[in-house]
Write a structure and sequence with these properties.
The protein is α+β, with helices and mostly antiparallel strands. It is built from four helices and six strands, in the order E-E-H-H-H-H-E-E-E-E.
């Protein structure tokens, strides 16, 4: 991902600022099962029939697939100069299963800002992201921190 003139620096963020994902990402059954085969091989992520007899009552995406998709939407929406350097996850909560055919979109709010004590050229940004499906049901909530460079450092 090439840097652009509109990349954001720490000073560009303010409390309460919100970012909405650029469109949505649709999840296919194939993506769900391929991810599960490689990273989360549980029956309800691998097979529709097994999913029907599980807690999920159908094929459900791994929460980690959902988290990876949300990460992509964050970095495409919040264009941090030099990239969004993760600094920790405070919370991640999956509230509804993601199903084949679901389209996900996000709303992210800046909830914390402070300059780094160890790295004065960086600021620490805390965000809260809500991830919605096409029915506007919240499927994931997360609170994470990332580092953003200060301008002219």
């Amino acid at each position: 991902m090439a840097e652009q003139d509109n990349d954001l620096y720490f000073e560009d963020f303010h409390l309460g600022q919100t970012f909405h994902s650029n469109g949505s990402i649709r999840i296919s059954a194939q993506e769900i099962t391929e991810f599960a085969e490689k990273y989360d091989p549980q029956p309800f992520h691998l097979d529709e029939a097994a999913g029907k007899s599980s807690f999920f009552q159908g094929l459900a995406a791994s929460g980690w697939l959902t988290a990876a998709i949300v990460m992509r939407m964050r970095v495409e929406t919040i264009r941090v100069h030099g990239g969004m350097i993760g600094a920790g996850v405070e919370e991640i909560r999956w509230t509804e299963p993601v199903r084949p055919g679901d389209s996900l979109h996000t709303k992210t709010e800046i909830i914390g800002l402070r300059r780094s004590k160890k790295r004065p050229e960086l600021g620490l940004v805390t965000i809260h992201t809500l991830t919605f499906n096409q029915r506007d049901q919240i499927v994931m909530k997360s609170t994470v921190k990332f580092l953003a460079p200060l301008r002219n450092q």
